[in-house]
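Work Package 3 (structural annotation) set out to generate three-dimensional models for the target panel prioritized at the project kickoff. During this period the team completed the workflow that converts sequence records into discrete structure tokens, so that structures can be stored uniformly alongside our sequence database. As a representative example, we reproduce one entry of 102 residues exactly as it appears in the project archive.
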Amino acid sequence: MEEIVKNLKENVGNIIKIKGKKASGLWQHMQKNIETHQIINYIDIDDTYQIIAYTQDEIKCEDKIELTGEIIELRGSKHPRSKVDESFSEYQMIVDSWKCID
């Protein structure tokens, strides 16, 4: 999982390809309103990490998916009113294209 996060962190603002599959269980994530990409997809990467992928249309793959898009970083805090900085980052993708793969 650390390698996945490192790769996403290093690519914030860049367009990259990632492989994964639609999540069977949904983890709690921050969400962003992306006017041009209103569909929210939960994607598992290597069964150890999950991201949100924003798309213009629903992903209909039964198994693995290859996604191409821009990595974005969302920052938040568990306790926004706390004086202690407990902020964290979450990496997500605005998807330009996707395809089902074997």
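The domain at 2-101 is CATH 2.40.50 (OB fold (Dihydrolipoamide Acetyltransferase, E2P)).
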